[in-house]
Amino acid sequence: MIRGGSPVVYDNEKVSRFGVLEKNASDASQMKWIEAPECFCFHLWNAWEEPESDEVVVIGSYMTPADSLFNECEECLKSVLSKIRLNLKTGKRYCLDMNSPT
């Protein structure tokens, strides 16, 4: 920021991921990490557990391209309200556009 640049830098060599920590966890070593390639959510709006499916559901603004928010980019920023399902058993992530008809 002192040099006029962004305090946040997007590194496309790294993979985004969500960390889920059980409510009763004794320490951070019990964190479950779920990779979410090409996912960038600057704000998360809500989240809840769905124990019957071993999933945590997250509502967030899925933004693309990630770099356009903080740095000069020729592509326009697209922000999509999304429902992101994180399966704690399989480690898979599913993302649904909440603006599209199902």
Features:
4-stranded antiparallel sheet; single chain; mainly beta; two-stranded antiparallel ribbon; 102 residues
Assess the beta-strand content as a share of residues: 35-45%
Distance between the termini: 43 Å
Strand order of the largest sheet: 3-4-5-6
> Total strand count, please?
6
**Succession of helices and strands:** EEEEEE
Shape designation: globular
Number of helices: 0
* Class from helix and strand fractions: mainly beta
The residue fraction in helices comes out at under 10%
How much is the radius of gyration in Å?
16 Å
Provide a descriptive summary of the structure in words.
- The chain is mainly beta and 102 residues long.
- It is 0% helix and 42% strand.
- The chain has strands spanning 17-20, 32-35, 41-50, 55-64, 78-87, 93-97.
- The strands form two sheets. It has a four-stranded antiparallel sheet, with no helix packed on it. The chain has a two-stranded antiparallel sheet with strand order 1-2.
- Strand 3 and strand 4 (55-64) form a beta hairpin.
Please write out the topology.
Layout: E1 17-20, E2 32-35, E3 41-50, E4 55-64, E5 78-87, E6 93-97
Antiparallel strand pairs: 1-2, 3-4, 4-5, 5-6
Short description:
The chain is mostly beta strands and 102 residues long. The protein has no helices and six strands.
